[in-house]
Design a protein that fits this description.
Layout lengths: L13 E2 L5 H10 L13 H10 L1 H10 L4 E5 L5 H7 L5 E6 L2 H14 L4 E5 L12 E7 L8 H8 L3 E12 L5 H13 L4 H4 L1 H7 L6 H12 L9 H10 L2 E7 L4 H5 L15 H10 L4 H4 L3 E8 L1
Parallel strand pairs: 1-4, 2-3, 2-5, 3-4, 5-6
Antiparallel strand pairs: 6-8, 7-8
Helix pairs in contact: 2-4
The structure holds S-adenosylmethionine.
């Protein structure tokens, strides 16, 4: 799997360390409050339940099937990696720069006896893995927190096999407008006001004591992040084109047929990517849907040719 020989350290993690200053800055930000945080009562069943209720993770897991290699880039505490691993024989690699996040994921796997996840600490801009190794790469919520998202993308797809699939999730230039406005209000009036303005925080607040760490890590990640950029579907399509990746599907969908038939949840069909105006419209529409309310993340999936 790796380019160079490395042994697990005594905490069971492959640790390549970090050399770049921006990466160090971002990862120092997550060390005290790993994202996404576990609740005290989280167990294997609960992770499965959360993943199965999420349309994207549930469908992606089905899409992967069995006997595959999967790299999650920027896995944080690796809840998605763990979800993809449970009850499958897939080999999952949870890769992140923040040691403390990976350690939480590793401890969770030990507690729950999950054996098919490897934990790797390193910088996604480095060339740590073999070329053409993984069948699937999932990288969501990560590249917009790096110094050069496009370059990061180009680096990670080297590790993807031909005919393998890559999923990219980024903050949307239009869909994140509500969060950007809340960031400004938070700067002016302080963090407390977020409990009125942010729907996810309002939900977590209902059980404030239990969700204390989750609340802090959400505020940290969404409102106080030192490095953040905004992107569009068209920008990702350009990255795809330049790197020989064929568009497969996106959330929000830009396939007129699917949208008009209210069939957006049909994940296993290759979509049309629509035209520029439909894509623009769908991204502006995000502001008024759950996607916009929960941070404005959009997803594009492609296949390496
Ligand atoms: C917002 S969290 C997302 C975690 C997870 N993907 C999710 O969606 O819940 C971003 C993660 O990206 C990681 N990250 C940022 N820059 C990185 C880099 N250059 N190399 C490796 N990981 C990085 C951070 O350590 C952090 O855990």
């Amino acid at each position: 799997m790796f380019r160079s020989k490395i042994e697990k350290n005594n905490e069971g993690i492959y640790d390549f360390g970090l050399n770049n200053e921006v990466t160090k800055k971002v990862n120092n930000f997550y060390e005290p409050l790993p994202f996404p945080n576990y609740s005290k009562d989280d167990d294997k069943r609960k992770i499965l339940d959360i993943g199965n209720k999420n349309y994207l993770s549930q469908n992606f897991k089905k899409f992967i099937g069995y006997g595959k290699t999967v790299l999650e880039v920027g896995s944080g505490t690796s809840q998605l990696s763990i979800y993809l691993a449970v009850n499958t024989n897939n080999k999952i690699c949870a890769f992140d720069g923040t040691y403390n996040s990976l350690k939480q994921g590793k401890l969770f796997c030990e507690k729950e006896n999950i054996k098919n996840v490897d934990f790797v600490r390193g910088d996604l801009f480095e060339n740590l893995f073999e070329n053409n190794y993984f069948d699937y790469i999932w990288c969501s919520g990560v590249l917009h927190h790096t110094k050069n998202p496009k370059k990061g993308f180009e680096n990670i797809i080297r590790f993807l096999k031909v005919n393998g699939y890559v999923l990219v999730g980024l903050y949307n230039r239009y869909g994140r407008i509500l969060t950007v406005l809340r960031q400004l209000v938070c700067k002016l009036f302080g963090e407390k006001i977020l409990f009125f303005l942010d729907p996810y925080l309002r939900l977590l607040k209902k059980n404030k004591e239990k969700n204390k760490d989750k609340i802090n890590s959400w505020i940290n990640d969404q409102y106080l992040h030192p490095v953040e950029s905004l992107h569009t579907i068209d920008e990702v399509l350009k990255w795809f084109k330049e790197n020989n990746i064929e568009y497969y599907t996106s959330i929000p969908s830009c396939d007129f047929e699917k949208i008009s038939k209210d069939d957006e949840k049909n994940f296993n069909l290759q979509d049309s990517k629509g035209d520029f105006f439909l894509r623009l419209f769908r991204q502006i529409q995000m502001i008024f849907t759950r996607l916009g309310k929960e941070g404005g993340l959009f997803i594009v999936i492609g296949k390496k040719l």
